[in-house]
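Something for you to look into today, if you have time. Just paste the record in under my message, thanks.
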Amino acid sequence: MCCFSRPVQSVSATQIFARDGEGTEQLLAYGMTLSASEELAMVLPLPVAPGTTQIRFIDLEGYARFFRDLQSGFPAPRSLS
């Protein structure tokens, strides 16, 4: 769950993808639709292992289909009728 530094009008279509990476690496992708009347900061608490010294952020703005492409790996089940 995230928090915001200023009031928001609405938050919807939240999507989260998380999995283990290599070694102790963890991967997290977070997407949402946000409506606000002014600039603000989103605060997303990230649990990390003790001794973690680096967190790397990757901007997926150029990959707008990320969550849609992930969903394509989990097709909806078909009925037997």
Notes: The mean pLDDT is 89. The longest strand covers residues 10-20. Strands lie at 3-4, 10-20, 26-35, 42-43.
